[in-house]
Amino acid sequence: MILDNMWGNKSWGKAYVKQAVNDDYLRQQALTSLAKHTYKAEVMGGNLSGYLLNEYQKVHDALCHIPNGDVEDLWRRSTTALPSMFSNLCNDGPMLYIGLLALMNPSQVSVVQLAMLEQTATRLRYTFSFAKHIITIYPIELARLNNFYRLLDLKSKMKDGCMSYSPAAGSLGLSLEVRYESRVLNVSFNYPGAKSERDALKDVSFSIKAGQLVVIVGANGSGKSTILKLLTRYYDTTSGTVLIDGNPIQDYRIADLRSVTASLTQEHTLFPLSMSENIGIGSPSSVTNLDKIAQAAKLAGAQDVIKNFTDGYDTVLEPVKTAHLSYTGRGNEDLKKEYEKMEKTINVSGGEKQRLVASRTFMRMLSEDIKFVIVDEPSSALDPGGEYELFKQLREARKGRTMIFVTHRFAHLTKFADLILCMKGGSVIEMGTHQELLNHEGEYAHLYNVQAQAFT
Ligand SMILES: Nc1ncnc2c1ncn2[C@@H]1O[C@H](COP(=O)(O)OP(=O)(O)OP(=O)(O)O)[C@@H](O)[C@H]1O
Question: Which SMART domains does the record associate with it (predicted)?
Answer without folding.
Answer: AAA
